[in-house]
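Dear H.,

Thanks for agreeing to be a second pair of eyes. The structure we're designing against is below in token form, covering all 360 positions.
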């Protein structure tokens, strides 16, 4: 029986977190202990949240290099990151059935820049996991979460530019599927060209050697972080990868030709009560979430873009015009480019990243 990922999360926070002075956890319920730890860590949670969302110029490799900052990161980001990753895996598998391709094969999962391991935990398949990050305390937390969730995981404290591409290839005679998870990594490498080149070298080798590989990428749904991910998407497709999600094709991304647009997906998350409580404490609501999410397959996977028209935007109309049709249009990405479509049922809004199927 698989462990409840939320309960594993609570147990990990309770194990790593620092209790307020004078608080005796003996005989207390796990949620009571968890809330006490959160309240003690709340100022740090808020500070790290601001750094990641508003003051990214202060972001450094040293930010999460102690246990208490890692606990604050878990409290502020881990669950929402898992929810977005789960959306990416579910939607891309629904369209392409990549999970069926993994049956009776050896699967290796490389979570590069793994952080708390949120993407690996959301993936949750039977595989050999490699959790790679430059922060020792983050890796310790990721290892605890993985073990509690029943994943077989090895950890490696290394920076991306020091990775050896030869370690990521199939061994002779192996029928191996290599899965790469890049969660909120690419945007942090803006000024690290050696790391970017290393990642592209590692992933392009699978195409060159006709090996089976899947790539899953998650980035924040912000213009200045999403557009570089869109450019990465074009680079991977030019290297031979097939775009599986959200794209209907593997040609040049037409949204890159629209300087005011960027591609991201939207989803909803049925939050556990404690997750709702965290949001209330932080003054936010993450029951709805967004992220620039992408999935790719090497040619050896025998998967291809399916030409499914996908909603990529909802530009708002001028107030008062054509009220009976709604206040927005859809921007739809098709195999022929970007089209604008008038919503037929504006009260049933299609989320970004979902197939456009009105009237079908």
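And this is the sequence the design step returned. I haven't edited it by hand at all.
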């Amino acid at each position: 029986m698989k462990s409840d990922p939320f309960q594993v999360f609570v147990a990990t926070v309770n194990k790593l977190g620092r209790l307020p002075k004078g608080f005796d956890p003996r005989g207390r319920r796990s949620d009571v202990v968890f809330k006490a730890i959160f309240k003690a860590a709340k100022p740090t949670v808020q500070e790290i949240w601001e750094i990641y969302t508003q003051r990214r110029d202060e972001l450094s490799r040293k930010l999460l290099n102690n246990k208490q900052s890692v606990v604050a990161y878990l409290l502020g980001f881990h669950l929402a990151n898992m929810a977005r990753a789960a959306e990416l895996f579910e939607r891309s598998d629904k369209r392409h059935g990549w999970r069926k391709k993994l049956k009776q094969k050896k699967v290796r999962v490389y979570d590069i820049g793994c952080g708390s391991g949120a993407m690996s935990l959301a993936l949750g398949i039977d595989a050999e996991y490699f959790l790679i990050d430059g922060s020792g305390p983050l890796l310790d937390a990721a290892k605890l979460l993985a073990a509690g969730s029943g994943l077989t995981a090895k950890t490696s404290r290394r920076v991306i530019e020091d990775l050896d591409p030869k370690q990521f290839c199939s061994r002779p005679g192996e029928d191996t599927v290599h899965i790469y998870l890049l969660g909120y990594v690419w945007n942090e490498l803006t000024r690290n060209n050696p790391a970017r080149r290393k990642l592209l070298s590692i992933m392009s080798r699978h195409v060159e050697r006709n090996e089976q590989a899947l790539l899953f990428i998650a980035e924040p749904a912000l213009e200045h972080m999403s557009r570089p991910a869109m450019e990465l998407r074009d680079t991977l497709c030019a290297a031979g990868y097939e775009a599986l999600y959200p794209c209907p094709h593997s040609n040049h991304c037409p949204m890159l030709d629209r300087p005011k647009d960027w591609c991201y997906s939207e989803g909803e998350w049925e939050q556990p009560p404690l997750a709702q409580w965290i949001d209330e404490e932080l003054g936010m609501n993450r029951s709805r979430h967004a992220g620039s999410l992408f999935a790719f397959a090497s040619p050896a996977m025998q998967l291809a873009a399916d030409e499914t028209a996908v909603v990529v935007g909802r530009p708002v109309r001028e107030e008062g015009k054509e009220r009976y049709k709604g206040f927005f249009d859809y921007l739809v990405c098709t195999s022929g480019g970007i089209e604008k479509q008038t919503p037929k049922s504006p009260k049933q809004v299609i989320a970004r990243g979902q197939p456009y199927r009105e009237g079908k």
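Two observations from my side: Helices lie at 5-16, 30-53, 67-96, 118-123, 136-148, 193-208, 223-238, 273-282. The CA atoms of residues 41 and 72 lie 6 Å apart.

Warmly,
E.
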